[in-house]
Amino acid sequence: MSLDIEIYPPVNGNQYVVLAGRLDSGSYEQLDDALEPLLLTAKPSMVLVMDLARLEYISSAGIRSLLQARKALAPLGKVLAVNPQAQIRKVLDMVQALPLGDIFATTAEADAYIDKLQREMLQGKDAP
Fold first, then answer.
1. How remote is the C-alpha of 94 from its chain's centroid?
2. pLDDT, tens digit, 9 for 90 and up, residues 95-127
3. What pLDDT does residue 126 have?
4. How many CB atoms within 10 Å of residue 61?
5. At residue 56, what are phi and psi to the nearest 5 degrees?
6. Over pLDDT 90: what percentage of the chain?
7. Helix (H), strand (E) at residue 4
8. All domains of the chain in start order, with CATH
């Protein structure tokens, strides 16, 4: 199975991307190429929400793509993972590709976190 990528229009400056299939050595460049224009034009505090509900497999090459996105958005932006299947979450946890606080069971949980993050930034507090 290959990798399918759906990129949705930005919402409040944040980007939503849905991944389906396999993110591995045969498909990571596809993700890198899809994310490149988003990351090059990102606001410093952009949140990239990656919906992983239909992602079935991730290899070290896929992990590298996620880490590159995190690095591109640092220090103020974030990469959040939502809806990961159990095997994907296990890999993300094991290699600590994303902080545990940046992995959410649902999109609603991630949206609530993003809302809180933006309110705190508007109030002049440092981002968590």
1. 17
2. 876 665 677 777 777 777 777 777 776 677 554
3. 53
4. 16
5. -95, -25
6. 48
7. strand 3-7
8. 3-122 (3.30.750.24)
User: In terms of C-beta density within 10 A (0-12 exposed, 13-18 middle, 19 or more buried), how is residue 97 classed?
Assistant: buried
Asked if residues 89 and 63 have their Cβ atoms less than 8 Å apart, the reply is: no
Length of the chain, in residues: 128
Q: Spell out a b/e string for 33-59, using b for 16 or more CB atoms within 10 Å of the CB, else e.
A: ebbeebbeebeebbbbbbbbeebebbb
Give the mean model confidence (pLDDT) for residues 22-49: 93
pLDDT of residue 68: 92
Tokens of 10: 């930005």
Indicate the SS3 state at residue 2: coil
**Which residues sit opposite 104 in a β-bridge?**
82
